[in-house]
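Hi team,

As requested, here is the filled-out complex form for the inosinic acid run. I kept the field names the same as last time so the parser does not choke. Let me know if anything looks off before we queue the next batch.

— J.
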Amino acid sequence: MYFITSNEGKFREVREMAAKYGIEVEWLKMEYLEPQGNSLEEIARVSAEMLSSQIEDEFFLEDSGLFIEALKGFPGPYSSYVFKTIGNEGILKLMNGVEDRRAYFMAVVAYFDGSTVRTFTGKVEGEIAREMRGTQGFGYDPIFLYGDKTFAEMSTEEKNRVSHRRRALEEFFRWLKENKS
Ligand code: IMP
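And here is what came back:
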């Protein structure tokens, strides 16, 4: 089954999780145009629908984002752009002096089975750290605290046990086993 992403970190996490369900994932490394939208679910679904006109085989993709409570959910669906522009340092600046550090990651998997698109969601709650910590992972991992460690201070395996992506994929892989095998 193809997994479409240009992000190698994501692909590695997905491949490791899929293997546990006996599913072999092939990396279709490509950038695709993401529509703008107010929800990850809508962005993931519309992206998959647009790609389905180019790719005939089954495939899935995943769209994720970081939602910070004190910033009313920002950067949310704009996480990718915000990471590329102001990055972790910019987020820490925005959160300077803010006591409420609660945040969550959300992931939406969109799966195209050759005729329709279906979505699966996962969420993990944590906090924004006061400074960047750790060297593992990618993206916002160094500023996302889960318990007393940031995601970047965890091994891939540790992160994969609790992550938003894990939760969305688990729902997806379980559904696949029940409905497609
Ligand atoms: P997208 O799903 O590829 O659009 O990612 C949105 C943004 O969130 C990107 O900047 C990613 O680096 C970031 N992101 C997505 N998942 C994670 C994660 O598990 N850890 C840290 N950052 C993430």
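Two things worth flagging: The domain at 2-179 is CATH 3.90.950.10 (Maf protein). Residues 104 and 125 are 4 Å apart (CA to CA).

Thanks,
J.
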